[in-house]
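re the bet — no i am not wrong, look at it urself. input seq straight from the record:
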Amino acid sequence: MQWALKNIFDWAKFRSTKGAVKLHTVLDYDGCLPVFMQITDGKVHESQRAGSYSFSKGSVVVVDRGYVDYSWLGDLDSRGCYFVTRSKVNMKYKVIKSYQSEALIEKGILKDELIELSGAACNKYNGKPLRLVHFWDSTTG
């Protein structure tokens, strides 16, 4: 039996021949249970949803690079939240300090740097330093 997402969820428009849904989820770090979930169609960009979520001080927000909006990340930081994301390929920055060592490399950490964003992103993030870590998982590549 062959089926298409667009036939089951006709509201999940994406392309003329495809449907798509996105599940935005907030997990409770202590209990590993969802405390909030939102389903959108595939055309809704993650950065459009990000600002509507509220996180308490000390939260660790883990998002994919689709959520990267430097103004929003700066807001999280100013509210005492931490965030982890994959950097965008075209991210411009300068290295302030490097924490390279053989011990880190043996653990799979190829680079560990304190950076400052350049260009428009610097203004959006208020010029605060960020930590950029390049990690290699030898098991999964």
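see?? The longest helix spans residues 70-78. told u. also The chain is about 20% helix and 35% strand. so pay up
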